[in-house]
Amino acid sequence: MNTQHEISQKQYQDKSNDYLNSMVHRQGIEFDKIIQRIKSLPQAPQILDLGCGGGHVSYAVAPFAQEVVAYDLSTDMLEVVQQTAAQQQFHHIHTQQGAAEQLAFEDQQFDMVITRFSAHHWHHVGQALQEIYRVLKPSGQVIIIDTISTGRVVLDTFIQTMEMIRDLSHVRNYTVAEWVQFAEQAKLNPIQIEKQKLALDFSSWVARMRTPLMAVETIRYLQQGVSSEIASYYAIQEDGSFTNDVMYMVLNKA
User: What angle do CA 62, 117, 230 make, to 5 degrees?
Assistant: First the structure.
């Protein structure tokens, strides 16, 4: 049996270019929010892009940062980030391989930690946040962007099932209340929480992960058989496209 980390590495092997070119990952209203927060800092920060994937956060913040470390479990992703950063002349973007639950950095190394669409793959969110706390400088900030659950059981069951059938490395979409609890247990204080909707084109959503045909058909079966409540909430379209809930959360280290 594979560990969760081994499953994640296998799932993202040879998919780095798919994520680099993914419009969902390249665009988002959260990028402006992140940049404005960085600009409000007294000096150019050292930033950890945790679970960097194709590196879109790293490229967006690099012009405003002293240093960016792109950190991911997938070496394939990190190779693409390294190549793309060099092409864009971002020589202060560096890469480091590892898991969120065990950060390979010194205490109080970073002014800011940003993680975008990664946390639902972490197998121990509480431990990861404790590690984030450790590597943050005093008064450092954390920005977490991730898909979330509503907490309503019928909606939660549907979205978690669909996500895992598409991608075996999916662990869980948590509720905002759960995120607040995780943060407080790690001694990180929520200072901003917003929700937004993410529109997902079904064909590119499954193609990006190269979801097997049988799994794609299973997801479509679920979508077509659910109640009107679920179909309406997630705005499921005839082609399978849908919307998902996303959280934008800012925390600080007291």
Answer: 150
